Amino acid sequence: MRPPALEAIARAAGGRIVAALAARFRNLDIAEDALSDACVKAAVTWPANPPADPAAWLYRVAYRAAVDALRKQRVRERLTSEAALTAEERAMEDFHLIPDERLRLIFICCHPAVPPEARAALTLRLVCGLTTAEIARAFLISEPTLAQRLVRAKRKIAEAGVPFELPSPRHWTDRLDAVLSTLEIAYSKAHEDAAGAGAHAGYAREMIELSRVLAELLPAEPDANAFAALVRYAEARRPARLDADGVMVPLAEQDPARWDRKLIEEADGFLALACAQPASARSLQAALHGMWCRRRSLADPPPWASILRIYDQLLGIRDDDIVRLNRSVALAEVCGPDLALREVESLGSDRFSAYLPYHAVKADLLRRLSRPDEARAAYDAALALDPTPAERVWLEWRRASLA
Amino acid sequence: MQYALLIYEDEAVYGSDDSPVMQRIIGEHMQFGQQVGPAIVGGAGLKGTSAATTVRGANGSQTVHDGPFAETKEQLGGFYLIDVPDLDEAIAVAKKIPLAASGSIEIRPLLPMPDAPAGS
Within 10 Å of residue A390's Cβ, how many Cβ atoms? Predict the structure, then answer.
């Protein structure tokens, strides 16, 4: 059992240490094992001999462990070259002098060559220092399955020749997009759990931290800032997403007084940075959230007209059916449910047959147009698609209210 | 690092070896070769699977069959061997390989060859 101070320091500084070692030695396993070795040694020596700068101590000891591991490996491979040590070891007395290589590590973990189901897990493990048990809980898979995925992903990175450098400018867009898509998928898992009491509760917080790291490391990238804003807006609304009975509360009916103003202010800062550049799909999506979060109380009218305008702008950049479906909710408020239903029905219903929000949106529009039989069928289709408990109760309640 | 870029396409798209599609794609491969330059260390285009013969070894015995080793919708039609710094560069090269219609380029790192013993 690690002492609590060690646990906290390893969690806070572990990502940077693993990243620096991985960048130096080009080997994720050696970097990760070296940090574990250092933590084991710390658990033994710190109680009697607490270091002045614990994070620097961990880095120094982990660095030596990595060098030892490489030496052993080289002996096995009958090679004789030695890693140069002294200059770097001298710079290790101060944690702030550790090069911050977390961005490189994030790009490695989220490389398109890594299986998609392993990317977020690997990032959370190596960059955020979550344990395999924590990540396995978050992804609702067994710990051995997750551990095996991580091992395979690391082997793939080593064997396929995934670069340990930051992507060059000509690969930058693709690679950054892979990183952000990975993190968006990871965050959406945390977001689905509206109560925040489930297995994802902890890692919603980690995503706030990780998105901040990414935005700070890439201050000129609108999408990195937009993602940091989006995660904060979404998390800020968490306290108002369920009512006292645990039933889902639609965005327009949530009490803004219950939203987390501090997170919203942080998000506004990131959104401002994102919007300083030409609009991207991600910055507009963050702007949609930001528009809602301007509302201060239920007495303020919901900003439907502004929301519709942002959706129109978004369609100009990314015209896909999901954007159109989401836009139709605002369209119904501004132009009436009739027009919105026509728009929803023009979307490919085959593609959406297994997409719960499609049926939920359609059901609500039919309900408002007083077409109860069709609405009931649409609610049934939505309910058949395994909604979260909070959403299920809300859908059932709406369905029961039909004439 | 060395990689093999394996080109899989539906060979039916090409028709015969001197079809207009084949003429066009060969021209595009020449251009590709000039563009990528010295990163290409080898490669070849392959005749269709109708020209293939397969030797199969199992349990110590060997049999010879006509045709490719497996019937698939897309067939291995050619390959390049390239030497580039990392996977990102290999992906960038693979994206430039001309395809007649739809197809896939599989990127496979080469096994490192053991160094020749000293004095041989």
Answer: 20
Count of CB contacts below 8 A, A vs B? Answer: 28
What SS3 class is residue A241?
Answer: coil
CA separation for the pair A310, A316 (Å, rounded): 10
Name the one residue in this structure whose structure tokens are 């069959």.
B65
- Whole-angstrom Cα distance, residue A377 to residue A243? 26
Per CB-CB distance under 8 Å, the chain B contacts of A171 are 88, 91-92
Residues of A with CB under 8 A from a CB of B: 111-113, 159-163, 165, 167-168, 170-171, 175
Q: What is the Cα–Cα distance from A211 to B97, expressed in whole angstroms?
A: 36
- With CA atoms as reference, the chain B residue closest to A160 would be B109
User: Using CB atoms, which residue from A113, A168, A170 is nearest to B87?
Assistant: A113
Q: Is A6 helix (H, G, I), strand (E, B) or coil?
A: helix
Question: pTM of whole model > 0.95?
Answer: no
DSSP B30-65: HHHHHHHGGGEEEEEE---GGG-EEEEEETTEEEEE
- Encode pLDDT of A246-296 as tens digits: 899 999 999 999 999 999 999 999 999 999 989 999 999 999 999 999 999
